[in-house]
Design goal:
about 200 residues, alpha+beta, Pnp Oxidase, Chain A, three-stranded antiparallel sheet, 5 helices, about 35% strand, globular, binds flavin mononucleotide
């Protein structure tokens, strides 16, 4: 075993170890709206479910240098957002949306994706995404020397593409075809499955 003490690591090295050790990671394609109502979309793979009651998710937004990313500024302002799940069809648009664009340039225009009005939040959904989770902000936790904001949101409305949900209320993963991120430019498709029974 190779031992690496964290206090010997630079930010870049720590980031590489973190992202290549913890993977594949699901991708939250987060759509928000800024104070001029310009719709914004960006992917975040430091992303997880937190609790089912109430349904809650969390994701982390790091600073771009000293500057806050559009996503966190918009969420602080509107206090809501939508997490759009990324399938293989959305991969290219998601990647394009990860570029650093000025706040008033919409990733929807850059990518050709379609903003769709939400039921309960001001942020738009991404019409092309097979699962859209409308979220209201619960809290933001700021951590780290390289500042990262953990955004915790309560899902107030789920949207599923027709045919994706089985009668027993489970998403058919083979129809969903989600992608995950490994590191930098490396992604995975979800194509290989096996089952195990849990112990009593
Ligand atoms: C697949 C993928 C996952 C990403 N995950 C994160 C993440 O978890 N946290 C983060 O701060 N940036 C992440 N990024 C980078 C942001 O998407 C990027 O900084 C984006 O420009 C932010 O846009 P915004 O300024 O519109 O919020 C990721 C990029 C890609 C391609």
């Amino acid at each position: 075993m190779k031992k690496i003490l964290s206090n010997a690591l630079g930010t870049r090295e720590a980031y590489q170890l973190l992202t290549s050790s913890i993977g594949p990671r699901p991708i939250a394609f987060v759509s928000t709206s800024n104070k001029n109502s310009v719709p914004n979309a960006a992917p975040f793979c430091f992303f997880m479910g937190v609790t089912p009651s109430p349904p809650t998710i969390a994701f982390s937004v790091m600073r771009r240098g000293e500057t806050k990313k559009d996503t966190i500024r918009n969420i602080e302002n509107t206090r809501d957002f939508v997490v759009n799940i990324v399938d293989e069809n959305l991969a290219n648009a998601m990647n394009m949306a990860s570029g650093s664009y000025p706040p008033d340039m919409s990733e929807f225009d850059v990518t050709g994706l379609t903003p769709l009005k939400s039921e309960l939040v001001t942020a738009p959904r991404i019409a092309e995404s097979p699962i859209q989770l409308e979220c209201k902000l619960k809290s933001i936790l700021d951590l780290g020397d390289v500042q990262a904001s953990i955004v915790i949101g309560e899902i107030v409305c789920f949207h599923f593409k027709d045919g994706l949900l089985s009668d027993d209320g489970v998403v058919d993963i083979q129809k969903l075809r989600p992608i995950g991120r490994i590191n930098e430019n490396v992604y995975v498709r979800v194509t290989d499955f096996f089952e195990m029974n849990r112990p009593a």
